C-alpha cells in the first residue's frame, strides 16, 4: 500500500468514527459541562478528517509551481495541529501540555492586509468600509503567523459584528522602538470603563450586542489575549461609550539574531 492509499484508508476510518460520534451527539438533549470530554473526542475526529484532507492536498500538489499555494496549505496544516493540541488538553492528554508555536519572521502589514481583504466581503453585507494603513520602517515581527491571524480574525470579526451598518473600520500598523502595533478601530457603541476591566475574561458578555444578529460567545478576546501574551506581546482596548472602540496588540520586532533561536 502506497502513502496515498494509506492516507485514504485513514480518512475512511476517521469518517466512520466521525459518523458514529455525530450519531451519538445527536442523541444528547443538550450540552453540559460533564460532556466536555465527549465533545472533545468528536472534535478530534473532525480534525483527523481535516488533517488527512490537507495531507492529501499537499501530496497531490507537491509539484505545484505556486509557492503561495504551498504556504497556504502549510498554514492550514499548522492551524489544524494547534487545534488538535487544544482538543487534547480538553481530553486531559499528557501529550498536549502546551501549544507548540511555529516561530518565524512574519510580515505583519501583509498579514493584516490579507485578513482585511478576507473580511471585506463580510463587511459589505452591512455596508461597512474597511481601511488599512501601515507606516513602519520594517514590516517584520517574530511570531507565529497562524496565531497572529487568529487574533486578527477575532478583532476584525468583532469590529464588524458590533458596528452599525454604513460605518467604518480602520486598521493601522505602526512602529514602536521594539514592537509593531496593530490597531483595529470601529465606530460601534463603545465600552464603559467598568466594562473594559472585564473585556478579556472568559465567557463574559458585555452590554454591546451584535448589530446583525451575529453569534457571540464571550470567549474570543480571552483567547486573543492568551495568544498574544504567549507571543511575548500585549493587547489592550481604548474606548468611550458612544465613540467606538479601539483594540490594539503589539508584537516584538524581528531581529536577525532571532533566526534559528529557540522559541521562548
Write the layout of secondary structure elements.
Blueprint: H1 3-26, H2 36-60, H3 67-90, E1 104-107, H4 108-124, E2 129-135, E3 140-143, H5 145-161, E4 168-175, E5 179-185, H6 193-196, H7 220-230, E6 234-239, E7 245-252
Parallel strand pairs: 2-4
Antiparallel strand pairs: 1-3, 4-5, 5-7, 6-7
Give me the CATH architecture of the largest domain, please: 2-Layer Sandwich
Q: How would you state the average pLDDT, rounded?
A: 81
**If you compute it from the alpha carbons, what radius of gyration comes out, rounded to the nearest whole angstrom?**
20 Å
Number of strands: 7
Low-confidence parts:
93-98
CATH class of the largest domain: Alpha Beta
Tell me the CATH superfamily of the largest domain: Histidine kinase-like ATPase, C-terminal domain
Global structural class: alpha+beta
At the fold tier of CATH, the topology name of the largest domain is: Heat Shock Protein 90
Helical stretch tally? 7
Straight-line N-to-C gap = 41 Å
Order of helices and strands: HHHEHEEHEEHHEE
| Estimated share of beta-strand residues | 15-25%
Amino acid at each position: 500500500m502506497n502513502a496515498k492509499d494509506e492516507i485514504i484508508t485513514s480518512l475512511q476510518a476517521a469518517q466512520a468514527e466521525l459518523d458514529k460520534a455525530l450519531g451519538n451527539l445527536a442523541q444528547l438533549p443538550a450540552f453540559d459541562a460533564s460532556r466536555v470530554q465527549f465533545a472533545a473526542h468528536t472534535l478530534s475526529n473532525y480534525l483527523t478528517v481535516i488533517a488527512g484532507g490537507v495531507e492529501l492536498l499537499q501530496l497531490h500538489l507537491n509539484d505545484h509551481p505556486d509557492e503561495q499555494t504551498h504556504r497556504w496549505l502549510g498554514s492550514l496544516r499548522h492551524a489544524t495541529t494547534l487545534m488538535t493540541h487544544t482538543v487534547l488538553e480538553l481530553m486531559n492528554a499528557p501529550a498536549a501540555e502546551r501549544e507548540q508555536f511555529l516561530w518565524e519572521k512574519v510580515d505583519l502589514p501583509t498579514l493584516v492586509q490579507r485578513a482585511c481583504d478576507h473580511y471585506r466581503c463580510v463587511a459589505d453585507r452591512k455596508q461597512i468600509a474597511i481601511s488599512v494603513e501601515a507606516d513602519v520602517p520594517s514590516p517584520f515581527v517574530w511570531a507565529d503567523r497562524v496565531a497572529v491571524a487568529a487574533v486578527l480574525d477575532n478583532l476584525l470579526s468583532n469590529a464588524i459584528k458590533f458596528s452599525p451598518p454604513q460605518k467604518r473600520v480602520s486598521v493601522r500598523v505602526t512602529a514602536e522602538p521594539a514592537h509593531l502595533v496593530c490597531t483595529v478601530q470601529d465606530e460601534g457603541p463603545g465600552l464603559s470603563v467598568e466594562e473594559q476591566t472585564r473585556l478579556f475574561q472568559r465567557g463574559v458578555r458585555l452590554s454591546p450586542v451584535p448589530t446583525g444578529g451575529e453569534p457571540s460567545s464571550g470567549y474570543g478576546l480571552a483567547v486573543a489575549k492568551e495568544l498574544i501574551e504567549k507571543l511575548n506581546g500585549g493587547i489592550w482596548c481604548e474606548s468611550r461609550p458612544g465613540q467606538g472602540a479601539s483594540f490594539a496588540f503589539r508584537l516584538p520586532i524581528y531581529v536577525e539574531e532571532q533566526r534559528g533561536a529557540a522559541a521562548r
